Amino acid sequence: MIDTAFPFSQSAASGIAGGTGLAVSAEPGSGAPAPATENIGTESSGLDQLLQHPAIWRGRSIARVQSVSTGFPALDEALPGGGWPRAGLVELLIPRFGAGELYLLLPALAALTQQHSPRWCAWISPPLDPYAPALAAHGVELGRLFVAQASSPLWAFEQSLVSGACDAVLGWAVQRAQEPHARDIRRLQLAAEKGHTLGVLFRPQRAARESSSAVLRVVVEPLEDGARVTLLKSRGGHRGALDLTWAHQNENSPRAHGS
After folding, report:
1. Where are the domains of the chain?
2. Which of 208, 199, 216, 128 is nearest to 163 (CA)?
3. What is the pTM of this model?
4. Strand 198-204 to strand 166-172: parallel, antiparallel, or no bridges (unpaired)?
5. For 63-93, what is each residue's pLDDT tens digit?
């Protein structure tokens, strides 16, 4: 009997659905994809078009934001654009690994990997191997999953964001030795904008005390059958806490508690 409860597997042998995805080792200087270029407006675009760029923050009157639904209506309503930003860095701050952080992302990852002509969904140096049966059970198209183990995770994360080859890039900086500085976060945010990529960086909850250039900062804390999601920073969106419940159709439905 296959346990579909956890999107991570303790065994490296599980891989990604027997190799339908792609796993690599990423290192600096190993020939990362060339950065995609994006022209922000032209001479004829005018001020109105410039103000629609996602980097322009106008308080509640935020520029139009392209988004992908989180799969949770209450959370979509609280976020600018009605979901996760399609181009920008999101910090998920967690008290411990497995607080519900991945289950929160599964609906969006499923939508991105199932869209017409999808790009890659890259996981950079995850602490455990992704568990393919659980991801597939939640609608994630495994053939668009890219897993990389890197000796320099932040470097690999940035290169994946800026490459233009990914719809979403997930990275982990949960160990003290991996903690990024403010200038690193700024660089990652710019890379996500340039590559038009949803970047998700998992960080320890203590990082909430630090300033950040990320477009969205969210604390995720586990509840008995869900998670408390606190919006610390949301450009043009709301702040405050939401209690989300993981909805299961029945007791035999695949589950993905936390990670």
Report:
1. 66-245
2. 199
3. 0.76
4. parallel
5. 567 899 999 999 999 998 899 999 999 999 9
The position carrying tokens 């976060």 is 185
Please name which of 216, 222, 219, 223 lies closest in space to residue 208, comparing C-alpha atoms.
Answer: 219
Token pair listed for 59: 């308080």
User: Would you state the structure tokens that stand for residue 127, as one six-digit string?
Assistant: 């602490």
Under CATH, what is the fold of the domain 66-245?
A: Rossmann fold (3.40.50)
